[in-house]
Amino acid sequence: MTSEEAGYLGAMTYNNLYAPVLDTLRQQNRTDDRALAAVHKLKMKLAECERQSPSFLFDLTKQLINQSELNVNLQEAYLRMHDSAPYDDLVVVGYENVPEYRELTERAIELPVEKRKREFVHYSKRFSNTLKTYFKDQNAAQVNISANQLVFQTVMVVRTVNEKLRRN
Questions:
Q1: pTM for the whole thing?
Q2: CB environment 94-126: b (16+ within 10 A), e (fewer)
Q3: Which of 3, 8, 90, 159 could be disulfide-bonded to 152 (CB atoms 3.0-4.6 Å)?
């Protein structure tokens, strides 16, 4: 696994792997206040670990998989996990009916979003080229890698927009 792959997969580990598991635990134990408190504390601590040491959870996950001697294709697994990953932080709420929203949004987020859009276009082209290659040599691993990069870039565009909205 390259450092580039570890970078974008590492950034997605908490949302794709740990948050859905913790949400399931919370739902299963919703009548047990002690269990809910423990799940909440674990969720906060894992998120804090990830903020303080980016890719910590990814590295932990890789070690657990290696120690268990499981044969897991992480690229494919991450693509499958996107389906159940929470996306609350990707939704813009509360601004739909504010007339000044459009003008403020355009001015406040123009530059960072343009950068993210250029990155998105770059990875979209890479994904397209990877698909062309896939139809020639049937290398699914490269398609998974490219698809994960594209998903990551999409999430980064939306998060950048949300971050800029929260600051204004």
A1: 0.54
A2: eeeeeeeeeeebeeebeeebeebeeebeebeeb
A3: 8
The tens digit of pLDDT for each residue in 28-80 reads 999 999 999 999 999 999 988 888 888 889 889 889 999 998 888 888 888 88
Residues 30-39: contacts with CB within 8 Å, 24+ apart?
none
CA distance 166 to 151: 23
**Residue whose tokens read 């996950």:** 61
- Give the pair of three-digit tokens for residue 22: 């913790």
Structure tokens at 27: 């739902």
Q: How far apart are CA 53 and CA 117, in angstroms?
A: 27
Q: What ranges do the domains of the chain cover?
A: 1-86, 90-168
